[in-house]
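Data card: per-record layout.
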Amino acid sequence: MVFYILIAIVFIAELVIAGTIISHLIKWGKLFREWNEFLDEEKSNIRSITETARKISEQLMELAPMCVENIKRIFAEIAIKNIKNMLVGILIWTVKRQIKNKKQLS
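The structure for this 106-residue chain is written out next.
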């Protein structure tokens, strides 16, 4: 008798588990159908967005070398300016030193 009660309890538990799984599968099926309908409706918008993104990336690929060249040119200009400033500073320092030496000699 106890054996039949345990079998009945296990069977009922399996039915509950199966019912839960089936109800979740039905909910997921509805969600997937809604998502699929949304994608079907928005397919043209998604396509236009991807085309716009492709055009933007192509333009960025064209602009990247120009940006790199501009950065190199700017760094070269800054380097030349710094070298000029250092040379002027060295020139002023040597002139001051020569003037100081002449004052000490006289």
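Known properties of this structure: The radius of gyration is 41 Å. The chain has two helices and no strands.

See the next section for split statistics.
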